[in-house]
TrEMBL record:
Protein name per the record: Phosphoribosylformylglycinamidine synthase subunit PurQ
Species of origin: Streptomyces lannensis
Keyword Cytoplasm recorded: yes
Reactions performed catalytically: L-glutamine + H2O = L-glutamate + NH4(+); N(2)-formyl-N(1)-(5-phospho-beta-D-ribosyl)glycinamide + L-glutamine + ATP + H2O = 2-formamido-N(1)-(5-O-phospho-beta-D-ribosyl)acetamidine + L-glutamate + ADP + phosphate + H(+)
Pathway membership, UniProt: Purine metabolism; IMP biosynthesis via de novo pathway; 5-amino-1-(5-phospho-D-ribosyl)imidazole from N(2)-formyl-N(1)-(5-phospho-D-ribosyl)glycinamide: step 1/2
TM segment ranges: none
Length: 226
């Protein structure tokens, strides 16, 4: 039996179906989760997808962090449940304090949508095992509030502990400090990033690349081999 990976839908989510498709292409079973439900339906992992949950009011991800489903996600993530936050999902993870730092508006004050070059910095998390450290990949990026910030102590700690998972290469699209595109928690089960791997899983759509598919094959192998 294959792994079951839940995808949470918040009001304003718009990449939940794409994420479910990416999970299915990787060989796992996607399970739809609703933001008002505390029950995670016994899934093996959870993805918080991209979008503009609650219209990004107050701050991006600030309201979604208090959705009933997040209480369960936070509790189980602390006990080892693999969780991936993509774009708005990354914002939710910082608001929920499952990942350190915060997301602010892009330094150029404009929405940006482009095919973004990244370097894999950590290939040992639950979600990055099918990559190799130092590998360069191209993943679509689309955000308005994608600037990752943290105090110097936190940034130095992330660097020292190898918790920067992805870094922007050649061009920093939003002013993120130290070119950080994604990070992981200490245990490696929680990962957040601004680019959208679910849009790079088939050669005929999206970016025309499949550089994002290893996110989903990585977690499948991790769960099946557990």
């Amino acid at each position: 039996m294959t792994a079951r990976i839940g995808v949470v839908t918040f009001p304003g989510s718009l990449d939940d179906r794409d994420t479910q498709r990416a999970i299915r292409l990787a060989g796992a079973e996607p399970v739809a989760l609703w933001h008002k439900d505390k029950d995670l339906k016994q899934v093996d992992a959870v993805v918080l997808p991209g979008g503009f949950s609650y219209g990004d009011y107050l701050r991006a991800g600030a309201i979604s962090r208090f959705s009933p489903v997040m209480g369960t996600v936070i509790e189980q993530a602390k006990s080892g449940l693999p969780v991936l936050g993509i774009c708005n999902g990354f914002q939710v993870l910082t608001e929920a304090h499952l990942l350190p730092g915060a997301m602010l508006g892009n330094d150029h004050l404009h929405f940006i949508c482009r095919d973004q070059k990244l370097r894999v910095e950590n290939a040992e998390t639950s979600w990055t095992g099918d990559y190799t450290a130092g590998q360069e990949i191209h993943i679509p990026l689309k955000n308005m509030d994608g600037r990752y910030v943290a105090d110097e102590y936190t940034l130095d700690k992330l660097e020292a502990e190898g918790r920067v998972a992805f870094r922007y290469v050649d061009f920093n699209p939003n002013g993120s400090l130290r070119d950080i595109a994604g990070i992981t928690n200490e245990a490696g089960n929680v990962v957040g990033l601004m680019p959208h791997p679910e849009h790079a899983v088939e050669p005929l759509i999206g970016s025309g690349r499949t550089d994002g598919l290893p996110f989903f094959t990585s977690i499948l192998k991790k769960l099946v081999g557990a």
